[in-house]
């Protein structure tokens, strides 16, 4: 695997079993600081399980995960979660709290209150008006809610951003815009980002490295350019074929 020296997040022979199912099967992987890694693969291939073992929503059955030089099991849970921003598809905004309270919940749980200015700043980062702070979640569109989810993930100034199908439920235009925004934030704040997605096109366009999972294992670990050039093997290429075929058909239409 790449960059062993500059590793910031590493997985060493990590497995997770659920009864008879081996969801993650001996994954060894090193991610350097500042990397933007996309994790793709069929439904049930183990992507979410791998991601959730980083912030210890799930614990491994075997192996070690090391973040910034420390085994995640040795980092107190509140401290671990403060260092990690987590965005997931179902967003999970608290319905009885307004937008500002939702964004401030992480810092509040760790004893810090966010100023209205800071909440406004976080809203601006995701291109929402600061006045949105007093809206309730059910008064927002899906895209706006997901933007609030990203702002909330950034509220603790995390080093690591974990995203589990963050844009899955959004329309394509919003999805594209929010993806670009997240990439800009990733660069601006020097984040390390791991994003689970079903969408190979999204992975190729946003990530600097694409990991393909199949039956709990990583079967390809390539740059987007290498995947587009045909590298990565059969499972990876079957996924790349989808956006390639679409691009070919669009090109035919314009002829
Ligand atoms: N809490 C659980 N209990 C039992 N089995 C589980 C549990 N969580 C996941 N699994 C199983 O582990 C395997 C991997 O699931 P996981 O959610 O990690 O896959 P995934 O690649 O993220 O899928 P999807 O793309 O559909 O979200 C699946 O077979 C799933 O049924």
UniProtKB/TrEMBL annotation:
Domain ABC transporter residue range list: 9-240
GO molecular function, one term: ATP binding
GO biological process annotation, one example: quaternary ammonium group transport
Assigned keywords, A-Z: ATP-binding, Nucleotide-binding, Transport
ATP-binding is among the record's keywords: yes
SMART domains per the UniProt record, alphabetical: AAA
The keyword Nucleotide-binding belongs to this UniProt entry's keyword annotation: yes
Originating organism: Qipengyuania nanhaisediminis
Pfam family membership, one: ABC_tran
This protein's name: Osmoprotectant transport system ATP-binding protein
């Amino acid at each position: 695997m790449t960059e062993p020296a500059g590793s910031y997040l590493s997985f060493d022979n990590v497995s997770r079993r659920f009864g008879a199912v081996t969801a993650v099967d001996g994954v060894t992987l090193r991610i350097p600081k500042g990397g933007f890694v996309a994790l793709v693969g069929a439904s049930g291939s183990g992507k979410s399980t791998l991601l959730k073992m980083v912030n210890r929503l799930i614990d491994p059955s075997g192996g070690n995960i090391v973040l910034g030089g420390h085994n995640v099991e040795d980092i107190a849970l509140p401290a671990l979660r403060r260092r990690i921003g987590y965005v997931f598809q179902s967003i999970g905004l608290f319905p009885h709290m307004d937008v500002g309270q939702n964004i401030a919940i992480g810092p509040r749980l760790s004893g810090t209150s966010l100023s209205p200015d800071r909440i406004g700043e976080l809203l601006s980062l995701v291109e929402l008006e600061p006045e949105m702070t007093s809206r309730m979640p059910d008064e927002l569109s899906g895209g706006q809610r997901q933007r609030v989810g990203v702002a909330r993930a950034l509220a603790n100034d995390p080093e690591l951003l974990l995203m589990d199908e963050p844009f899955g439920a959004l329309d394509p235009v919003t999805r594209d815009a929010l993806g670009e925004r997240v990439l800009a934030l990733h660069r601006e704040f020097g984040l390390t980002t791991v994003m689970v997605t079903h969408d190979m096109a999204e992975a190729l366009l946003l990530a600097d490295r694409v990991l393909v999972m199949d039956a709990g294992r990583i079967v390809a670990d390539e740059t987007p350019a290498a995947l587009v050039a045909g590298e990565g093997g059969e499972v990876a290429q079957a996924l790349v074929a989808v956006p390639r075929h679409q691009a070919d058909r669009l090109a035919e239409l314009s002829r």
